[in-house]
Amino acid sequence: MSERAAILHAELDKEQAQAVNAAQFIDLAKKYNNIETLTPAIVNEFIERIEVHALDKSGGKRKQKIDIVYNFVGMLPVFLAKLKVA
């Protein structure tokens, strides 16, 4: 197998894995479509980890970056994280 073919095969495997992970995340979201109470168990199913960065006090305001890493899909792009659900 040529080097180019090996690279393309690796990229295809990565894309297929991402599609499977996205499908798993969507299935999980469908499972909890109409929850009334957010429980620790539900949070643990969705979130892999939360990363809290150092506090930034520059500019006279306190800022702190927090990253949420979700199971199956990782960190969501900022534009998706800011979407409001109707």
Structural notes for this entry:
By secondary structure, the protein is of the alpha+beta class. The chain contains 3 helices and 2 strands, in the order ααββα. It has helices at 3-31, 40-46, 78-81, and strands at residues 47-56, 63-70. Strands 1-2 form a two-stranded antiparallel ribbon. A hairpin with a 6-residue loop joins strand 1 (47-56) and strand 2. It is flat. It starts with a helix and ends in a 5-residue tail after the last helix. The model has no long low-confidence stretch (mean pLDDT 84).
Molecular shape: flat
Mean pLDDT: 84
**Please, how many helices?**
3
- Strand fraction equals 15-25%
For the biggest β-sheet, the strand order reads 1-2
Q: Separation of termini?
A: 50 Å
Tell me the structural class.
alpha+beta
Report the major sheet: 2 strands, antiparallel
**Radius of gyration based on Cα positions:** 18 Å
Q: What is the strand tally? A: 2
The percent range for helix content is 40-55%
Low-pLDDT runs: none
Order of helices and strands: HHEEH
Features:
alpha+beta
Short description:
It contains three helices and two strands. With 86 residues, the chain is of the alpha+beta class. The radius of gyration is 18 Å and the shape is flat.
Helix/strand layout:
Blueprint: H1 3-31, H2 40-46, E1 47-56, E2 63-70, H3 78-81
Antiparallel strand pairs: 1-2
